[in-house]
C-alpha cells in the first residue's frame, strides 16, 4: 500500500512548502500530494486555497498577485516561528527538486475561475519539459481538467477526487476516462473499495490519518492512502 504525504508532512510542517516536502521525504514514503493555483502572470504555484490568507502573512487571491509579488509573503510563520522565511513554491521548483527522487507526485489541480486553459497548458508543459510523465498523477475534483490531460498526454495517470462514493461509480469513472479514484475515506466509501479494485481502478482514499483507518484500507486492498501523518504510517507499514 502506497503512503502518500498530503500537502507534504502536513502534521509537522507548514503544508505545501519546500520544508514540508523535504520533511516528508525523510520517511520511506511513495508519494507526495500538493495543490496548484495560478498567479496573475501565469505561473503555477503550490498552495491549497485560492486565497493566501490562511497559510501566509498576506491577504488576497493568488490570482491577483504576480509570481514576484506572491514570493514576498511568508508561508511558514503561521504554522510556527521556526519556519519563518518559507515561501509559496512554484510548481517548477517542486518538480526540479523531486526530479531525482524516488517518489510519485500527486498534483491536484484546483479549479480556476479564469485562464483555465493557460493554467492546464503551463502545468502540462512543466511535466513534459522535466520528463515527469511517469511520476506525476494529475488529480482533481473537476473532471474537465482530467479530460484535458487525457486528450493531450494519455501517458500521464489521472485521478478523480471525490467525496461521493455513489455518483462516482465504475461506469461513471469509465465515462470520464479517469485512471484512478481518490476518495474521502468515509464509512460509506469503504463499501466500494473492493469493487473498484476488482474492476482495475486504483483507489487511494484521502484523510487517512488514524492507524485503525489505515489498517482497514490495507485490508480492503487499496492502492494507497493519502495522509497528513506520513511518519506514523511509515512507522507502521514500513517497519519490517
Ligand atoms: O488528495 C485529495 C485531497 O487532497 C483533496 O482535498 O482539500 O485536501 O485538497 P484537499
Ligand atoms: Ca489536495
From TrEMBL:
PROSITE patterns given in the database record: GP_PDE
Pfam families, alphabetized: GDPD
GP-PDE domain boundaries: 1-237
Origin: domain of life: Bacteria
Matching InterPro entries: GP_PDE_dom (IPR030395)
N-terminal signal peptide: none
Protein name: Glycerophosphodiester phosphodiesterase
Amino acid at each position: 500500500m502506497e503512503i502518500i504525504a498530503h500537502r507534504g508532512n502536513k502534521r509537522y510542517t507548514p503544508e505545501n512548502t519546500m520544508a514540508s516536502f523535504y520533511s516528508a521525504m525523510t520517511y520511506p514514503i511513495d508519494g507526495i500530494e500538493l495543490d496548484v493555483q495560478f498567479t496573475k502572470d501565469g505561473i503555477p504555484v503550490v498552495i491549497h486555497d485560492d486565497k493566501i490568507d490562511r497559510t501566509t502573512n498576506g491577504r488576497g487571491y493568488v490570482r491577483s498577485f504576480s509570481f514576484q509579488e506572491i514570493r514576498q509573503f511568508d508561508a511558514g510563520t503561521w504554522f510556527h516561528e521556526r519556519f519563518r522565511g518559507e515561501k509559496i513554491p512554484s510548481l517548477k521548483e517542486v518538480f526540479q527538486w523531486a526530479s531525482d527522487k524516488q517518489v510519485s507526485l500527486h498534483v491536484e489541480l484546483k479549479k480556476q475561475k479564469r485562464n483555465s486553459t493557460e493554467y492546464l497548458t503551463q502545468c502540462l508543459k512543466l511535466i513534459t519539459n522535466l520528463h515527469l510523465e511517469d511520476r506525476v498523477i494529475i488529480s482533481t475534483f473537476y473532471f474537465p481538467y482530467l479530460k484535458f490531460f487525457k486528450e493531450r498526454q494519455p501517458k500521464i495517470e489521472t485521478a478523480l477526487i471525490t467525496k461521493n462514493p455513489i455518483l462516482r461509480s465504475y461506469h461513471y469513472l469509465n465515462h470520464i476516462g479517469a485512471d484512478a479514484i481518490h476518495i474521502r475515506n468515509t464509512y460509506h466509501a469503504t463499501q466500494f473499495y473492493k469493487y473498484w479494485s476488482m474492476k482495475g481502478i486504483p483507489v487511494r482514499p484521502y484523510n487517512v490519518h488514524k492507524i485503525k483507518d489505515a489498517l482497514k484500507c490495507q485490508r480492503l486492498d487499496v492502492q494507497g492512502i493519502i495522509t497528513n501523518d506520513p511518519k506514523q504510517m511509515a512507522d507502521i507499514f514500513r517497519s519490517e
